[in-house]
Structure formats: structure tokens, C-alpha cells
Amino acid sequence: MPIPKAELHLHIEGTLEPELAFALAARNGVDLPFADTDALRAAYAFTDLQSFLDLYYGLMAVLRTEEDFAELADAYLARAAAQGVRHAEIFFDPQAHTARGVAMGTVVEGLGRALDRSEERHGVSTRLIMCFLRDQPAESALATLREAEPYLHRITGVGLDSAEAGNPPSVFREVYEAAAALGLRRVAHAGEEGPAAYVREALDVLGVERVDHGLRVMEDPGLVERLVREQVPLTLCPLSNVRLRAVDVLAEHPLPRMMAAGLMCTVNSDDPAYFGGYAGDNFAAVRRELDLGDEQLRELARNSFLASFLEDDEERRSR
Ligand code: ADE
Ligand code: ZN
Predict the structure, then answer these.
(1) Positions at the binding site
(2) pLDDT per residue over 13-71, tens digit each?
(3) Global pTM exceeds 0.90
(4) CA–centroid distance, residue 73 to ligand 2 (Å)
(5) Where is Zn(2+) annotated to bind (predicted)?
(6) Fewest CB atoms within 10 A around its CB: which of 72, 109, 110, 196?
(7) What domains are there in the chain, each with its CATH number?
(8) How far is it, in rounded angstroms, from Cα 233 to Cα 42?
(9) Cα distance between residue 261 and residue 26, in whole Å
(10) One of 89, 164, 192, 193 is an active-site residue; which one?
(11) pLDDT band for position 317 (50/70/90)?
């Protein structure tokens, strides 16, 4: 039995497996620039975050209808459940869809259809987190928030993702203030490829409650002290960090040092179709390569529920 856990850092578009991508391409009449699933998988040799993002955004062309988004999410939830995930807080990238003519409502209602039946079908409770693309202008993020207003009953929070280097969190101050005024929870990717200073900005300027990645915080001891004191959760993604070359090899991942420092760490899968594993695979990999013991794995699993946006009573039930 895999250890029960919550997944807090998961891009639904990053769960698009090659087989489903080709099936949706055929159904929607989309031409993919790959001969077959093997050729597509062979392209998953990333050199950095941008090399991944280019393929990730390109493959989204196959996602067109509500049914496509529902199938994508349902397939993820089935896989996650099989690996012990009891609760999933799922990111989506609306601008990557609206920019190609797929309406916000199509995306949210499609994902919502799968999420609505997730507890019954898979035993997985869910939340949706809408991410803004930090390599697009702040005005586009603000317009996206306005477009999402009719669907806020389905959306728990906002996040910030895409190319980090040179795109600091502070640019998005206004849209995060507007999101907070709407009662949305706030998270942001920071310290994946960008510096520890971006983690400080995400906390101080955007008011985030969790930091997605935060891999580079160890470069700033003062920041570590603060994150420990405030017990700010970090949603780490070890297999992602290896595939995107944020760390050279998993055995050198800072997770054990971060835990030893008292940081509130969680382990997540990011874009599992591209990075070689779902939540349970990430747990297994850190156990094996980083020599984590049972007590540390239990701590990671416990943190995942504590850091979730579940209410206290829901949290206790799902553990
Ligand atoms: N979008 C999807 N996966 C991402 C990642 N690891 N970092 C930034 N943006 C992303
Ligand atoms: Zn991510």
C-alpha cells in the first residue's frame, strides 16, 4: 500500500501522456510534428526549463473541447489514486488555452467535470489553482483573472508559473492583490531556476502561503531562518529538478538538508508525463537515492496534508 499523500504541485497539462496526446490529436484533426509516441518520448531530453516549456505548450494544441480536459484530468486522477494520492491541488494554465482560441469556460468546466466525480471514482479530493504565465505581461494576467470570475466557485487559488529567470514575482503585485480581494488563496513558483530573492518577493509582494519549488532557498540562510520560523510550505519536485537540470543528479538534491534545517518540505510530481514519474514515483525515488527513512517519508506525507488548502476536518478525514 503506497503511503497516503496529498499532491500540491501538479500541472494538469503536464500529465498529458503521449498515448492520450495522439488519441486527442486524431479526434481533433491536429497534426503533431512527431511520427509516433516513441518519437515524442524521444524529444523529452530537456536541457533546462525553457526547453521543456516549448514542448509542453506545443503539445497543448491537442486539447480543444470540454471532453478533452475532462479525459485528461480523469486519467491523472486514476494514476494519482493508484500511487496513494488522496488529495490533489491541481494547477492549470488558462492563458495557454485562451491564446489559442479555447475559452476559459471550456477549460474550467471540462476539468470540473472530472473533478466533480473524483471522490466517488478515485477517492481523491481536489482543488483547482489557476496559474498566470509570468513570461506574459501583467495586463494579460489581470484580464485572465477577470475572465475567470464567472468560474470562481470552482477555483481555490492563483499561482504563477512558466519561464522564471528574468520574470520576478513583483511584476504581478496588482493581480495578486485583486485575487486576494476575491478571496483566492495565493501560491507562486519561485526559486526553481530563479534566485532565492524571488522567493522573498513572492512572500513579501505577492503574499503567497506556499512556495512552489523553493529549491534555491538554501543559498540564503536568512531566508531559510524565516521560512523555518513561519513554517512556509515548499512544494519540491525532485524528478522534475533532475529532468530540467536544476540539480545534476537526484543523489545531490538538497531535500535532506532542507528537512534537516527544519523547512516544511513536500514532495510532488510537477509534470509527471514528462519527468518520469507521478507522486508515488517521486517518493520512491527520494527514498532510494537520498536514503530517506520511514520517519522522513511520513513527515513528507504529513506535511502534504498540513500544507494543503483542505479545511481542518477534511484534512483529518483524508489522512
Ligand atoms: N509549467 C509547467 N511546469 C512548470 C515548471 N516546472 N516551472 C515553471 N512553469 C511550469
Ligand atoms: Zn511547476
Answers:
(1) 9, 11, 189, 270-271
(2) 999 999 999 999 999 999 999 999 999 999 999 999 999 999 999 999 999 999 999 99
(3) yes
(4) 16
(5) 9, 11, 189, 270
(6) 109
(7) 5-307 (3.20.20.140)
(8) 34
(9) 50
(10) 192
(11) confident
